[in-house]
Design goal:
Layout (H helix, E strand, L loop, with lengths): L9 E5 L5 E6 H11 L2 E6 L6 E5 L1 H18 L5 E6 L5 H17 L2 E7 L12 H10 L4 E10 L2 E8 L3
Amino acid sequence: MINEQIRDKEVRVIGEEGQQLGIMSSRDAMKLAKDAGLDLVKIAPTAKPPVCKIVDYGKFRYEQARREKEAKKKQKVIEVKELRLSPNIDTNDLNTKVNNARKFLEKGDKVKVTLRFRGREMAHMGASKHILDDFAENLKDIASVEKPPKLEGKSMSLVLAKNIK
C-alpha cells in the first residue's frame, strides 16, 4: 500500500536514509513524505503498529523486482525425467536406459522409470518387478530409490533421486 491507501491510525515511520522517525499518525507521516517529494510505502503491514517507509515508489519497485530476479537465478528447478521400459526388454537396451538415467541424475534431475504392460504381459506383472529392481541396483552408486516400485493401472513405476553427499 502506498500514500492514501494507508488507512491506519498510527504507523511507525522510517525515513529515506533508514533512520527511525518514530510512531505517528498516518496523516503526519504522509505530510512528511509529501514534503520530501517522496511516497509513503507500507513495508510491514502485520507489525503492531504497521511499519511505513518514506521512499521513491518507482525506485522501490525496481529494487524489489531486481532482488526477486536474483533470488530466482540462484534456485535450481528439479525436473522429473521419465524412462519407459517394457517387460521383455533386452540386457543391452536396459543398459542404454541405465546410462540415460545416469546422465539425467548427474544433471540433478529425478528419474521416473515406468514399466508398461500391454495385452498378455498383464498376467505376469509380479514376475517383471525384478527389471525395476535391477535398474535401481545398477544406479545405486549415484542414486537412491525415492519411491519404491508401485503398480498404477497398466504400469509399474519407481522414482530415483541423486544421492546427497
